Amino acid sequence: MGIVLCEGLATAHAVFQMSGIPAATVFGAAELENGVRLIRGRYPRSEIIVAADADEEGRKAAEQCRALGAVIIEHSPDAPEKWDWWDAQAQDFDKAREQFRAALKAGRAARVEPEPEILEVDVEPQPEPEPPREGERLPNALRLIRADELELTEPEYLVHGVIERDSLAAVFGESGSAKSFFTLDMLCSISTGCTFHGRTTEEAPAVYLCGEGNRAIKRRLTAWEKGRGVSLAGVPLFVSNRAAVLPDDATEKDLLAAVDEIVQRTGQVPGVIAFDTLARSLAGDENSNTDMNAFILAADTLRRRYDGCAVVLVHHTGHMDKGRMRGASALRGALDLEILVQKDGGHVVVSSTKQKDAGSFEPMHFSLETVPVMVARNGEDVTSCFLEEMDEAPETVKKDELTKVEAYGLDSFRRAAEKSGTLDALGKFAGLGLEEWRGEFYKGSTADKPGTKRQQFTRAREGLVSKGRLTVSDDVYRLAGVLAGIEEQAISEKLRKAREEKESPGND
User: Fold this and answer.
1) Ranges assigned E (strand) in 126-167
2) Domains: count for the chain
3) Domain for residue 148, yes or no?
4) pLDDT given at position 237
5) Tens-digit pLDDT profile for residues 389-411
6) How far apart are CA 138 and CA 120, in angstroms?
7) Are strands 476-479 and 429-433 parallel, antiparallel or unpaired?
8) How far is the C-alpha of 70 from the C-alpha of 399, rounded, in Å?
9) Within this chain, do residues 374 and 420 fall inside the same structural domain, yes or no?
10) Is the peptide bond before 201 cis (omega within 30 degrees of 0)?
11) Which one of 56, 158, 215, 227 is least enclosed by Cβ atoms within 10 Å?
């Protein structure tokens, strides 16, 4: 591949971004010839490319390098005085890249073979680097720090109380649950610096890697602008034209180059990079822990390269368990944050099902509002949606919709489920038997007669089923409604913990 020699550091960076060829700076036109001689002496077969500035010193140095067999990249004749490739890419990156490629092609065609004697360069051999002495550490070596010397730092939130910097997060839900609307809402808020439904944000560039419905993204963004009254004009929110499928060397190289361009254009590293969806972005089987771990390592590469960047994965729920993500268990283990999005009619509820180092945020309730975003050729309105947060949960999910005996019945169901519920082969809550529930209900009932307790229990379970709070099959009851998945997940964890404690040595 060779190397490009430039006069300045910024020019070298721009050249690398435009060509992908390694670039180095010699800090001034006067040093270009020495740089060519040095590299030619050590690596006589390597291609050496010189990208000098568009001034008299640069042109003179380039001609000296041409005689040494270097490929010379020439600027267009109408380039301003002292123009360089950093200036060109800063003005119009795509145009500059095309000009650079054309100049490189012309430079290779015009290259001349150097005179043999010119290549006789006496280069002083460099000593081999000495291994670290005993007691010395390499910069990135593993270090052990005494606990009391660790620095106590406060969380750095991109969206206060919701998502932190340098985190791996998942936003998941059923198809059509509005999980992509929620993710785009966060990215728009971060990239504009506006509040996220009353929650402060840290303004930063955002990247949305779109794997599904790319044509609809602009309509969704327009709906967000109209609904929130905030313009995205000139905002550092960037959307891909296709999915970024990882792990894959070529795709990773393209993605890093594209994000590096954003860093150069904005002067900031991205605050968040979102993959929508994980299924469209994973090069492998989502049920394989090996394939999932490989994808997680690729996501971690982004977090290490762009310090403080959060990576968000938009994913689907399982086919049977709507409160859990589908696929390999390695994903959930690696996540710092897990957000469940559920939709019931026009009501969308967003809940935290995992937050590694902080308390879970309170469930958010949204209505999905429709707005016109353009007029079609036939004169009809084309519409899209945006999320509008509700001041409080709708009546259908409020506890006060239940009668007193129904509310007690639901509480007794939860207590009984945590003690006597059953787990399936995968360790997930499979339901609570009628008699186990009845015993817990009777235990806390204030009725003084057995017949009255029986009547109250019947009214409670029939009311809870009819109001959609419980489901029943063969006298086995389970929770229902938009928050059922979250509640059953918590019950499962308590049952598994109790089972492990019972089976541990010393508890016989």
Assistant:
1) 157-159, 163-164
2) 3
3) no
4) 97
5) 998 776 555 444 678 888 899 99
6) 37
7) antiparallel
8) 78
9) no
10) no
11) 215
